[in-house]
Amino acid sequence: MSMNALPVEGVFTSETSRKRSSVTDQIKDFILARRLRSGDLMPTEAEICAELGVGRSSVREAIRTLAALDIVEVRHGHGTYVGQLSLAPLVEGLVFRGVLRPADDFTALREVVEVREALDLAMADQIVAALTGGSDPELARLVERMNAKAITREPFAEEDLAFHTRLLGFLDNALVGQLVTALWEVNTVVYPKLGLAPAEDIDETARAHGAMLEAAQAGDLEAYREAVVTHYLPLRRSIDKAAAEAVG
Asked: 206 exposed, middle or buried (CB, 10 Å; 0-12, 13-18, 19+)?
């Protein structure tokens, strides 16, 4: 191959990339213009081609890209639908990032924990305002189950997630709940992949959930915030211990 051919190949690759991106953006604009919602059936491939004035191969490539982002969902034999627009792609990226950088003092996992804590603290005043003076039997039951499992050193990941999901359900902000759930999932997936042992002080974590609930129902914002910080201490200590052992 001659040197003169190289620039042509580079231009072709760049133009192909721009075209793919353009078709992807056009399909997203199409969804918005039609005011389609999650679960709505998309037009057929032929109809999209005619609407956008592009070829089938470009549309198929764009659909694959959008499917990976959960913007569309391809149901073979049934058609293409507007996706759930979940944070699954974010979770996948953060999980890979966390596993890819285990030697870097577990920085990626520590950052996830810090963001989780920051979100919980940022929503503290709204949660306390929503729960003050009330009671929630389901949250109380989850705390009881966590405490019972902590006594026997049994993990309570399912109850932990259910507790935070229900707590954030009192907020008029679905995105915060989705972010917290996504980051929680990253935490629980990356933790064992890095060979980290479960936090030793899980009883402290269980009690902190109870303290969060009690403080919120009592309208004590400061106590609630303190309980949130305490809730993450065992996890932070576990990560710091693993990082120190990796260095040593």
From this structure: buried
